[in-house]
């Protein structure tokens, strides 16, 4: 058995604030490496990639990346690539922050097909690379990231605005919400053979939230391909919401009429709502949201800072929730 010495920044992540603590059962043991033999990008993936024009080759891999200066606040100091890609929540690959990186290596995410359907005029099943090409390639945006467990990072994401995908799908007037279904691959992903969550991971947004210019589909980090542990090849990013809204490794996007449920709400509705807006005044039932640990800064426990309303995107998004009781719609 491998005894891993926890890094200093892992220490404070004790059961006290874990999203999984509600399970009240022994933490499942992740059988490491039993799916690592899965071949990475196989012949089919390489062939598909070679069909791309040179300018967009590896588009879902995050290249080429134009930095969008509108989303590059110089006051935000990006977290190191190493921490962003090794301190993860991805229960399909284990429930410890350090599990997803080693456990997702070799999992095959290329080629990848995504299905866009529901109440739209242009339903398609499309290769992830082709989708990125249709979206006009990728740009980089530096966003704050805040987990409901009261820690935060700053992440330079590569990807495209979700509004472009919505325009491409061409929703019918009845479409009011959009859902994101992530992969279901229990054969190759041991975490999905255990009931740690209700698989597959599922998320939803109101259509106007999804259409907001901040909402983003990530395909890369720091100009590099988005690693498996961060949700390759397509992953939702909604910077004013808690991280659990950011479904990873999406296979299906549906436009629907009624407000959908989401995985964490199904697991514990009193703790995780549909809105999941970062809100320092609404505590999680088991801990405060008033402050947050900054990952990678200030030693073992992380420098603490005050949590900002809507994760600092108050000006941009407050109008979406005008007149709503945010303690009720949490
Ligand atoms: N498919 C899937 N997506 C997921 C999760 C997960 O367990 N499975 N965890 C969520 C949670 S709780 C958080 S905080 C973020 C973590 O993203 P990161 O590992 O890139 O920081 O992913 C979200 N997306
Ligand atoms: Mo989270």
CATH fold call: Sulfite Oxidase, Chain A, domain 2
Mean pLDDT over all positions: 85
Compute the CA-based radius of gyration: 19 Å
Give the overall silhouette.
globular
Give the helices and strands as they follow along the chain. HEHHEEHEEHEEHEEEEHEEH
Approximate helicity band: 10-25%
Question: How many separate structural domains?
Answer: 1
State the CATH architecture: Alpha-Beta Complex
Quote the beta fraction: 15-25%
Number of strands: 13
CATH top level label: Alpha Beta
Description:
The chain is of the alpha+beta class and 330 residues long. The chain has a single domain (13-321), classed as Sulfite Oxidase, Chain A, domain 2, CATH 3.90.420. It is built from 8 helices and 13 strands. The strands form 2 sheets. Strands 1, 4, 5, 8, 9, 10, 12 and 13 form an 8-stranded mixed β-sheet that branches. Strands 3-2-11-6-7 form a 5-stranded mixed β-sheet. β2 (113-118) and β3 form a beta hairpin. Residues 1-17 and 21-60 have low confidence and may be disordered. Molybdenum atom (MO) is lined by residues 19, 89, 147-149, 243-244.
């Amino acid at each position: 058995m491998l005894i891993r010495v926890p890094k200093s920044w892992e220490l404070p992540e004790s059961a006290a604030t874990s999203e999984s603590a509600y399970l009240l059962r022994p933490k499942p043991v992740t059988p490491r490496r039993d799916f690592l033999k899965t071949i990475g990008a196989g012949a089919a993936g390489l062939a598909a990639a070679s069909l791309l024009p040179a300018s967009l080759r590896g588009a879902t891999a995050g290249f080429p990346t134009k930095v969008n200066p509108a989303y590059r606040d110089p006051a935000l100091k990006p977290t190191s690539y190493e921490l962003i890609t090794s301190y993860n929540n991805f229960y399909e690959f284990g429930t410890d922050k350090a599990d997803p990186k080693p456990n997702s290596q070799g999992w095959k995410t290329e080629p990848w097909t995504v299905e866009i359907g529901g109440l739209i005029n242009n339903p398609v099943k499309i290769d992830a690379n082709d989708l990125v090409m249709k979206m006009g390639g990728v740009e980089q945006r530096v966003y704050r990231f805040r987990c409901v467990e009261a820690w935060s990072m700053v992440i330079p994401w590569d990807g495209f605005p979700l509004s472009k995908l919505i325009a491409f799908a061409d929703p019918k007037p009845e479409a009011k919400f959009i859902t994101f279904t992530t992969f279901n691959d229990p054969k190759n992903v041991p975490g999905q053979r255990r009931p740690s969550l209700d698989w597959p991971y599922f998320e939803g947004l109101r259509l106007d939230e999804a259409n907001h210019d901040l909402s983003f589909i990530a395909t890369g980090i720091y100009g590099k391909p988005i690693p498996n542990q961060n949700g390759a090849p397509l992953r939702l990013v909604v910077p004013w919401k808690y991280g659990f809204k950011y479904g990873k490794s999406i296979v299906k996007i549906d436009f629907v009429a009624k407000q959908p449920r989401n995985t964490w709400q199904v697991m514990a509705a009193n703790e995780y709502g549909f809105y999941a807006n970062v809100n320092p005044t609404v505590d999680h039932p088991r801990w405060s949201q008033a402050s947050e640990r900054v990952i990678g800064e200030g030693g073992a426990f992380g420098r603490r800072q005050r949590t900002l309303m809507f994760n600092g995107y108050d000006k941009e998004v407050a109008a979406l929730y005008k007149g709503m009781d945010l303690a009720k719609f949490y």
